[in-house]
Amino acid sequence: MENASNLTVLFNILITGMLIVFFVLFLVFFLGKIIIKYFKLFPVEQIDKNIDTEQIINEKILKISNGKGKVLNYKKLD
Q1: Does residue 23 lie in a domain region?
Q2: CA 44 distance to own-chain centroid
Q3: Given Cys at both, which of 14, 32, 38, 61 links 69, Cβ 3.0 to 4.6 Å?
Q4: What pTM did the predictor assign?
Q5: Does the pLDDT value for residue 74 go beyond 90?
Q6: How far, in Å, CA of 69 to CA of 63, rounded?
Q7: Alpha helices in the chain (DSSP H)
Q8: Residue predicted with more confidence, 53 or 62
Q9: What integer best gives the mean pLDDT of the chain?
Q10: More confident of the two residues 23 and 47
């Protein structure tokens, strides 16, 4: 008779654990959606696309290398 009570306790622990896991996943999913909707309300700054990328790279390289460095080639990574 003790084995049946042990099985009952084990199934209760199993079901309780599964319910807790699903509840936490539910909270993570819906709180994530709420946070995303909240932050979408704020406007995002638009980046000026008319900047001269090559000029900025050359200035930074010259600053880092104390005027001794030179950019030979650069490639945009996606």
Answers
A1: yes
A2: 18
A3: 61
A4: 0.49
A5: no
A6: 9
A7: 2-39, 53-64
A8: 62
A9: 88
A10: 23
Quote the CA–CA distance of 41 and 8 in Å, as a whole number. Answer: 50
The span from the CA of 68 to the CA of 78, in Å, is: 29
Distance CA 73, CA 57 (A): 11
- Identify whether 73 is part of a domain: no
| Predicted local confidence at residue 57, as pLDDT | 85
60 occurs within a structural domain: no
Q: Rounded to an integer, what distance in angstroms lies between the CA atom of residue 10 and that of residue 5?
A: 9
Q: What is the mean pLDDT of residues 29-39?
A: 96
Distance, CA of 76 to CA of 78 (rounded, Å): 7
55 neighbors 68 (Cβ within 8 angstroms) = no
Q: What is the mean pLDDT of residues 50-63?
A: 85
Q: Report the phi/psi class of residue 69: left, alpha or beta, with left for phi > 0 and alpha for psi in -120 to 50.
A: beta
Domain range holding 25?
A: 2-46
